[in-house]
Amino acid sequence: MPLPSLLQDNRVKAWLLLSPTILYLAVFIAYPIIDSFRIAFVKNGSISFEAVDFLLYSPLSEFWSALKYTFLLAILVIPTETLLALTAVIILFKRFRGRDAVIYALVMPLALSDLAAGLIWYSMLTGKGFLNKLLLNMGLISDPIIFFGYENRWLTFLAVYLAEVWRSTAIVFVILFAGAQLINKEVFEAAEVFGASFYVKLRHILIPMIKPSLQAALLIRTLFAFQVFAVVWILAGRDIPVLAGEAYYSIVELHKYDVAALYAIAIALLSASIGVVYIRVFRETLLR
């Protein structure tokens, strides 16, 4: 078939349009995952489960603790961020004086790296940090609160939780707010004509119509939650182990690349599994 005629085929056009994405996924997603399996399970040209034994049974391994804290952070942080972002979208849906300034303040954390966010919260929560000075000056405490250290693990976890919520709520807010801006204003005007209250418009118009944006926000934020690293590493180190942090430790301190590859595989499998669940749940909801 001549090339000009071939390019008129819709299926060929579709594959040509998809080819950059397919190439990106193959080079930056598929190949690293396949190579991770090779690094983890192939040693001296034969199959080896030495890395699995180390991961599950070695006293140097924190795999189960890392899995627990990674899930715990995700379970606590993601609903909090979603609720805060949805509340902000509801408040900012109506125009008022200072609305733009509030939006800029909410999205400001997006300009910071994870490392910078961790350093900001560390400097704020240390014994001589802003929070302790404020509480001491107000007379609410007599001694500084020690947030960091193995003996104060749950206070450290609280610091990580607050830092993650502050840093990542902006991502969820931007996605939901963008989705809300696409809603036709005539829908709300029609609801007002029929005397619908703000609660009715919220429940039956706004929230149902931003469900696709909510799906995207939850999916993206969950994938990022299982990759959390810099904020935890700055604030807690290995006092609160997470999967990505243990992968880093396995390479830098233990020089065990096969174990680090296993951590990477675990993160990828968890992310993919959660992604499939989200897509199925939201697909059923949207089709109702």
Keywords:
mainly alpha, 288 residues, two-stranded antiparallel sheet, flat, 2 domains, MetI-like fold, 75% helix
Helix content: over 70%
Distance between the termini: 45 Å
Low-pLDDT ranges: none
- Average pLDDT works out at 85
Strand order of the largest sheet: 1-2
Largest sheet features: 2 strands, antiparallel
Q: What is the CATH domain class of the largest domain?
A: Mainly Alpha
Q: What is the gyration radius calculated from CA atoms?
A: 24 Å
Q: Do you know the CATH topology of the largest domain?
A: MetI-like fold
Count of discrete alpha- or pi-helical segments spanning 4 or more residues: 14
Element-by-element helix/strand order: HHEEHHHHHHHHHHHH
CATH superfamily of the largest domain: MetI-like
**Class per helix and strand makeup:** mainly alpha
How many structurally independent domains? 2
How many β-strands, per DSSP? 2
Q: At CATH's second level, what is the architecture of the largest domain?
A: Orthogonal Bundle
The percent range for strand residues is under 5%
Q: Per the principal axes of the C-alpha atoms, what is the gross shape?
A: flat
Protein name: ABC transporter, permease protein
GO biological process, one term: transmembrane transport
Domain ABC transmembrane type-1: 67-278
Keywords: Membrane, Transmembrane, Transmembrane helix
